[in-house]
Design a protein that fits this description.
Largest sheet: 7 strands, mixed
EC number: 2.1.1.-
Order of helices and strands: EEHHEHEHEEHHEHEEEE
Distance between the termini: 37 Å
Strand content: 15-25%
Low-confidence stretches: 1-11, 15-36
Subcellular location: Cytoplasm; Nucleus
CATH topology: Rossmann fold
Structural class: alpha/beta
Mean pLDDT: 86
Protein name: EEF1A lysine methyltransferase 2
CATH architecture: 3-Layer(aba) Sandwich
Number of domains: 1
Oligomer: single chain
Radius of gyration: 17 Å
Number of helices: 7
Keywords: Cytoplasm, Methyltransferase, Nucleus, S-adenosyl-L-methionine, Transferase
Shape: globular
GO biological process, one term: methylation
Bound molecules: S-adenosylmethionine
Length: 248
């Protein structure tokens, strides 16, 4: 789904934002101050929402074998794998997919040859769906855990690469103290990622500049990955930001 927006308007995660590289209507509650609480709360920021989504997708997978939605589309996965390939990330590097959803990105990583990959999600039905898809693909060596990234229960640490595709966006829409939750996200990320480790984030709710601000403490921007652009009324912009940070 491609959405064209006037220049200056923002894309944002919406219930129909999955599958395409552009998203729905901005959920902003007004002027954006980076680091502030700029998004209107939404069901997409709650675990209840994701539990319901993945329970439904699990039933669909069991009945029809359909793997469900891939957030930001297939190209968003290829873009990340291309970067990992270009930067010669070793195939045995430990990779964490934060908020893995249906785990399809883990499947792609494993098919590409990565052998030390972990997916976490706070939704048990997402992890069940990921497990079913991984099993059907006949893949082994993929670790899955039900984990709230904001309240990690285990000694999850030592990752060389952390991936986020839409999870920081979802957390930003939490109706209950999103600003605090974003800060906790950065703390959790610092805890699980090795020094000099890479953090690859794809977002439809935050611009490059805002993400730079959110991850200013302890992370530096290495690269902005090209994403499709839209144009309208003489202006052009990108509806999705894909950035690579390195932990300092
Ligand atoms: C937009 S979906 C993206 C799913 C997947 N990364 C993809 O690209 O298809 C957001 C995911 O983040 C998960 N999530 C949200 N908050 C989380 C948290 N605090 N801890 C772990 N997972 C979380 C949701 O359950 C959901 O699977």
């Amino acid at each position: 789904m491609a959405v064209q927006r006037p220049s200056g308007a923002r894309s944002g995660m919406s219930a129909d934002a999955s599958g395409g590289d552009a998203a729905g209507v901005a959920a902003r509650s007004g002027a954006v101050s980076p680091g502030g609480d700029g998004f209107a709360p939404s069901a997409l920021g709650t675990q209840e929402h994701w539990d319901a989504v993945y329970e439904r997708e699990l039933r669909t997978f069991q009945e029809y074998g359909d793997r469900g939605e891939i957030w930001f589309g297939e190209e968003s996965m290829n873009r990340l794998i291309r970067w990992m390939q270009k930067h010669k990330i070793p195939l045995d590097a430990s990779v964490l997919d934060i908020g893995t959803g249906n785990g399809v990105f883990l499947v792609e990583l494993a098919k590409f040859g990565f052998s030390n990959i972990t997916g976490i999600d706070y939704s048990p039905s997402a992890i069940q769906l990921s497990g079913s898809i991984i099993e059907k693909e006949g893949l082994s060596n993929i670790k899955l855990k039900v984990e709230d990234f904001l309240n990690l229960s285990t000694k999850l640490s030592g990752f060389h690469v952390c991936i986020d595709k839409g999870t920081f966006d979802a957390i930003s829409l939490n109706p209950d103290g999103a600003a605090e939750k974003r800060k906790q996200y950065v703390k959790s990320l610092s805890r699980v990622l090795n020094v000099k480790g890479f953090f690859l984030i794809t977002s439809c709710n935050w611009t490059k500049e805002e993400l730079l601000d959110e991850f200013s403490e302890g992370f530096e921007l290495l690269e902005e990955l090209p994403t499709p652009t839209f144009s309208f009324g003489g202006g052009s912009g990108s509806s999705v930001a894909a950035l690579v940070f390195q932990k300092t």
